[in-house]
Amino acid sequence: MKPAKPTASLPPTLPELSLPELEALMAELGQPRFRARQVNDWRNKGVCDPDRMRNLPAALRRALAERLVCEPLTLARRQVSRDGTRKYLFRLARGGMVESVLIPEASRATVCVSSQVGCVLDCPFCHTGTQNFETNLTAGEILAQVLAVKRDMAAEPLPTGMHGQLTHVVYMGMGEPLANERAVHASLERLLDANGLNISRRRITVSTSGLVPQIARLGARFPVNLAISLHAATDALRDRLVPVNRTWPLARLRQCLDDWPLGPQRHVTLEYVMLAGVNDREEDVAALARFVRPDRERVNLIQFNPWPGAPWRGSPREHMNAFAQALIDKGIRATVRRSRGDDIMAACGQLKAGASANAGEPATAEEEHRAHA
Ligand code: SAH
Ligand code: SF4
């Protein structure tokens, strides 16, 4: 595992402040208490630039801009897929780039957030894993992704037939959320907070490659939905595909999943990216059948998103369907994830890869316009 740089000395950001913290700030600034609620309401709508908080006095707007990092991210690039998926590349105010994805559907809209710049782990099929780990995001930077996407949905509504409000948050962008535990927990607190973004825990999913002690702590504090990047059901293969398995092998993961606090009608998702000839064989069906607990877990088969220089190919679609059927025949609930945003490479780490290939190239006028809309 690569070491993490400390982030403790950064100034507070507007996205991460709770209502009581905003009230304390107003008291310090000699402002009436109701101003905290006004700032909180703007922020929860995605408006973080004090100059756009129209009902605040100018002096307070200036004070906010001085005291806080109001917008820890700026939009560097935005791409919209034919299927409506939107992919965002953000520049951190303190340097570094992260990506987020908005996945709209008829009954929900999901934002996929990043938790680190790069990743501390090295899963060889993952493009983020092959990039250098740069830094852990702060809670404010994680939340700022959600807020920026909300702002974008308000500025440019989704096409008719798609859900207009942000409903779900998944931690499946760049980075390993549970290797950045403090900031991820703090961001979950604000997402769940009734005075914050007020998103139900049933609508939040944390995806992890399987850091066993951190999974247990997550379940104890935030029983949100859990997704595990399983990708292989024998230690020999998982040691290769998900190297953290060498530290927390399948038996330890099994125990931890058995202890996960599952609500009624809920399940843990086991993610399984399908690599042709690597983990899509008959013996892999048998290994999954031994590992998976069908009463508590569901297997989600994911199409491999290729990236330049990737050492593997994805399993063909028909083979994925046949693999899913073989699991179903063994009593395992298995689904094939519909691929979204293929035409804009809306996958883990890939927008950033595309952007660094055009290093230094400014956003187009249209993208800039949307960034400030
Ligand atoms: N680090 C966390 C969350 C981010 S990755 C984790 O590993 O779970 C989100 C998901 O995308 C994981 O299941 C990951 O294995 C998968 N993934 C990574 N690279 C991929 C690729 N090239 N194609 C398809 N899925 C990929
Ligand atoms: Fe990191 Fe997840 Fe990619 Fe593995 S799959 S390298 S844990 S982001």
Architecture overview:
The chain folds into two domains: 54 residues, Orthogonal Bundle (DNA polymerase, domain 1); 300 residues, Aldolase class I (TIM Barrel). The protein contains 13 helices and twelve strands. The two termini are 40 Å apart. It has a ten-stranded mixed β-sheet with strand order 1-2-3-4-7-8-9-10-11-12, with helices on both faces. It has a two-stranded antiparallel ribbon with strand order 5-6. The protein is an alpha/beta fold. The site of S-adenosyl-L-homocysteine (SAH) has 16 residues, from strand 8 and strand 10.
Task: Show unreliable segments.
Answer: 1-6, 354-373
Which sequence of strands runs across the widest sheet? 1-2-3-4-7-8-9-10-11-12
The Cα radius of gyration reads 21 Å
CATH homology superfamily name of the largest domain: Aldolase class I
**Ends apart, CA distance between termini:** 40 Å
Average predicted local confidence, pLDDT: 90
